[in-house]
Design goal:
It is built from ten helices and no strands. It has 256 residues and is an all-alpha fold. The chain has one domain: CDP-alcohol phosphotransferase transmembrane (TM) domain (Four Helix Bundle (Hemerythrin (Met), subunit A), Up-down Bundle). The longest helix is centred in the middle third of the chain and has 28 residues. It is globular and about 45 Å long.
Amino acid sequence: MSKLPKKHQFLDLSDYGRSLGHLIATKLLNTSITPIHVTTMFIITGFIAIWLLLNGYLITSAFLLLLKSILDAADGDLARLKKKPSYVGRYYDSISDLILNFCFLLALWYITDISFIYMIIAFLAIQLQGTLYNYYYVILRNSVKGDSTSRIFENITPKALNGESQLAVNFFYNIYYLLYIPFDKTIYYMDQNAVKSKPFPKWFMTLVSVYGLGFQLFIMALMLVLKLQAFIIPFFIGYSVLIIVFIFIRRVFLKS
């Protein structure tokens, strides 16, 4: 299920796992399995991929990275199919993504000769890339009355939705805020006026979707299959140049 009304749906290059994710979600619809369970499945899948990477099973690790991306699509679809949106699930998903990104890069640093400093820079770069995509995507969703679980500004603890505990929402929100607020504020200050824009055109969102986590994982998986694991960290550092390009396009051609 899309997070956008049909009129505003675009080709999301990071969302290649949506069809399989939706299939998984439909199979789980009438079971006791919840979106939180599916998120936990992708966490386990991600850590198995990291273990395989550390032990030299590059192709299998790449396959599990793509499976993780599919499961990442399935948890949100399952929540929408069950009509049970959840702030706990939204924050749990995002926190898990960040931790897995860091651990995967840490594993790459361990098996290559890359500097630890470069690994940290690559981690920050990947998070900023993903934050830019999410920033524009959430602005679009809010402006066209799409999925509203994610907010443009995550600067206040949300009120728990039906079926979830406020205490749990507070707990996961505080962790999310601590981990993500530096990236959110950085991107916001780089393009503050984006929230005043008209709904972004489809071509622009397709371009920016190369920064979606799914597409980032696809690049990592492809480089593992090609045995280019030593180049993944340098690649994502250089890949950050597109942040400036996308913000320039938005500010010059898509003014409010």
